[in-house]
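Could someone model 2-phosphoglycolic acid with this protein?
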Amino acid sequence: MRRTLIAGNWKMNGSSAANAALLAEIKAGLKAGAGCDVLVCPPAPYLLQCADVLAGSAVAWGAQDVSAHVAGAYTGEMSAAMLADCACQYVIVGHSERRAYHLESDALVAQKALQALQAGLTPIVCVGETLQQRELGQTDNVVTAQLQAVLDMLDVAALDSIVVAYEPVWAIGTGKTATPQMAQDVHAVLRSLIAAKDADAAQRVQILYGGSMKPDNAKELLAMADIDGGLIGGAALKSADFLAIVAAA
Ligand code: PGA
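Reply:
Sure, complex below.
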């Protein structure tokens, strides 16, 4: 049985004061424990704030990106070891905003996933098609190529240390959500791709859905057989919404 993971991707939002309030509300809301794994991914300058506030709580913290390099002359980048040093457990790699605005290729995303694994972090590998790709019937091919690039770099043992997130680009921040069946169909494609590498491990890998997941649609999305959680953007910035999604899980 796979555990459900509800992960908040704060993107480039927040401040020390706003985060303090949001984290306090989330912690208070989960005082009695959560029925699922809960994660927040703040902007990197606030990872240590999360470590301070969340240590010993039911909420884990992670980063939104990581360098593909180990260390050295890479101005502006953060190594996986640094994120581990901030007690991160997870890091998002290959978010569509990184792919679109920073031209991250499948190969680069795979390198980042590998760096994360080598530092003991769980990479949350994001894949997803654009609206045009969906309309051209290319969805399965696109997400397959994106995930395969990562799978090709991993040995079978590492499959137990990754999370996959399906995020249709057209659903991110738009209020448009994939229907539960549309999402389930792609999740099934992704799981069968992992199964081609190792059938047992494929049954254990958590595959999250992301793209306008909200309190009012979370339950039906999370009810699908291959949807094991959510990567939440906008709704992760409001404690009531985020807690409602956690409660739906
Ligand atoms: P959204 O973002 O929930 O605001 O659509 C999801 C994401 O980009 O991870």
